[in-house]
């Protein structure tokens, strides 16, 4: 019988391919061939289990990475939303600050106008009081010289003058030095001459008549 060489591959069962060495003959011991095939099958099963474990581990790692990535995306979206809210809040604060600045400027302008109006009113009132004091003093002096009155004390009888002194003594503004304000607000006393009294005027008038 003619001897023939064994093929490189032999299928012992469906779905399993076993490689044999090239020097294996068809006349080799079937038990040895089966043992070698079983060993190959066991090695393949072991490799398959290892690969399955690796696939499972990779699948778990992939799922974990996907979860972490999703959490990172959610955190990024939350950070963007928080940043947008902070930007909107900052813009609102800037608008509020601008509004307050405008209101403050308007209040300062109104206060300046009020101060000017008050200063003008005080000047007019001061002038009116001076004129009233001079006119009243002249009338009182004339009545004293004509004998209609026995005494003449301008500081006592001119009520408007006393009232004006009390009014001018009030502190209109809390800022500044009080002494300087009182000195600046002290009204003029018209044409009053130091040392001039009712008796002196009456005596001088009597001498002129004689």
Report on the architecture of this protein.
The model is unreliable at 1-17 and 180-197 (pLDDT under 50). The chain is mainly alpha-helical and 210 residues long. It contains 5 helices and 2 strands. The protein has a domain at 114-209. It has helices at residues 30-145, 154-157, 159-169, 178-185, 198-209, and strands at residues 9-13, 16-19. The chain is rod-shaped and about 170 Å long. Residues 200-210 have a biased composition (Basic and acidic residues).
Low-confidence spans: 1-17, 180-197
Distance between the termini: 193 Å
**Helical run tally:** 5
Using the alpha-carbon principal axes, give the shape: rod-shaped
Radius of gyration of CA atoms, rounded to a whole number: 60 Å
* Main sheet properties: 2 strands, antiparallel
Mean pLDDT: 72
Order of helices and strands: EEHHHHH
Strand content: under 5%
Helix content: over 70%
Count all strands and give the number.
2
Which strand order spans the largest sheet, edge to edge or round the barrel?
Answer: 1-2
- Label the structural class: mainly alpha
Keywords: Coiled coil
Biased composition (Basic and acidic residues): 200-210
Biased composition (Acidic residues): 174-184
Coiled coil: 62-110
Summed up, what is this model?
With about 210 residues, the protein is mainly alpha-helical.
């Amino acid at each position: 019988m003619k001897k023939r060489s064994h093929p490189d591959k032999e299928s012992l069962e469906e779905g399993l391919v076993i490689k044999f060495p090239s020097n294996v003959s068809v006349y080799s011991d079937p038990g040895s061939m089966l043992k070698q095939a079983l060993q190959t099958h066991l090695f393949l099963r072991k490799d398959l289990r290892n690969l399955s474990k690796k696939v499972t581990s990779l699948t778990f790692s992939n799922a974990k990475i996907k979860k972490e990535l999703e959490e990172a995306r959610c955190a990024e979206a939350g950070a963007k939303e928080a940043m947008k809210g902070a930007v909107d809040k900052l813009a609102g604060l800037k608008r509020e600050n601008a509004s307050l600045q405008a209101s403050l400027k308007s209040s300062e302008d109104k206060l300046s106008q009020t101060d000017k109006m008050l200063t003008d009113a005080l000047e007019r009132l001061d002038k009116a009081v001076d004129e009233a004091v001079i006119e009243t003093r002249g009338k009182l002096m004339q009545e004293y010289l004509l004998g209609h009155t026995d005494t003449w004390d301008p500081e006592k009888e001119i009520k408007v003058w006393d009232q004006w002194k009390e009014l001018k003594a009030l502190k209109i503004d809390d800022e500044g030095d009080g002494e300087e304000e009182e000195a600046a607000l002290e009204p003029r006393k018209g044409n009053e001459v130091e040392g001039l009294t009712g008796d002196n005027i009456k005596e001088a008038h009597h001498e002129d008549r004689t």
